[in-house]
Amino acid sequence: MSDITIRIGGVPEHFNLPIHLANEKGFFNKNGITINWTDFYGGTGQMTKALREDEVDLCLLLTEGIIADIIKGNPSKIISDYVITPLTWGIHTGLNNSLQHDDVIFNKKHAISRFGSGSHLMSIVNANSKGQTMNPDQFTVVNNIDGALASLTNLETDVFYWEKYTTKPYVDAGQIRRIGEYLTPWPCFVIAASNKILNKFPEAVDKMLDIIQESCQQFMQDNSVISIASERYNQKLQDIERWFHSTEWAADSWVSDKMMKSVIFHLKSADIISEDQPIPELVWRR
Q: Which domain holds residue 236?
């Protein structure tokens, strides 16, 4: 069988280091798989769009974002959990903004990478969990972290949710302030693949998953990856050390039905999907 190329997308963050290390060690190539990686600086919303438009075959993206988008017609399936611990979202504001606490943010302007992204969904889910509601006109699309920094600094927006450790260098440098944190009530990242690649090369996708999960298991046992992640992602060693010891990657492809129900409940409660929305098959059944 000739080599199969699989186009993978992910955020340029430390969570995806196990896959990059496996690729650099040649684990995919040895099994007849070529990985073509794309960094998506715009996060989950940008990746769901790329899956829809056949720009990638597979993505590592936020659980709630891909579930919402498959329900809305994305021709893809979740094929495995990836990071099974919750994501810690930092809640940020501009240096010169008068905001001091995250309990008064729900009537403010929120910067989001795009509609349907994690930064958008978490604003709504967090508000909803506190008995508050967010209106669509409270959101401003800023595309990525650079856009958010500019928007917060210019006081065009007041609040921005992004993964805590990714934004910490900007907080440490005094470019933005973190005024709170929010933990997702479910595992943070899953792996999703287009129906097209699943129908065309199911064995290659399964083999690729085996390699990713083996690499994740090795990664979790190897403390030397802490310094590698610190250097590659320009993070303080003690921050990466704390992150490493509070993060767990999936060792198999099991996806919890209860977790899916919980996410769907929150998406409906937040009016991201309608109460009577039909739910398609979300998970790849081998």
A: 4-86+186-269
Window from 13-22, 80-89, 116-125, 209-218 with minimum mean pLDDT: 116-125
Q: What is the DSSP string of the chain?
A: ---EEEEEEE-SSGGGHHHHHHHHTTTTGGGTEEEEEEE-TT-HHHHHHHHHTTS-SEEEEEHHHHHHHHHTT-SEEEEEEEE-SPPEEEEEEETT-----GGG-TTS-EEESSTTSHHHHHHHHHHHHTT----GGGEEE--SHHHHHHHHHTTS-SEEEEEHHHHHHHHHTTSEEEEEEEE-SS--EEEEEEHHHHHH-HHHHHHHHHHHHHHHHHHHH-TTHHHHHHHHTT--HHHHHHHHTT--B-SS----HHHHHHHHHHHHHTTSS-TT------B---
> What is the total count of domains within the chain?
2
Query: pTM for the full model?
Result: 0.90
Span 183-196, pLDDT tens digits? 988 999 999 999 99
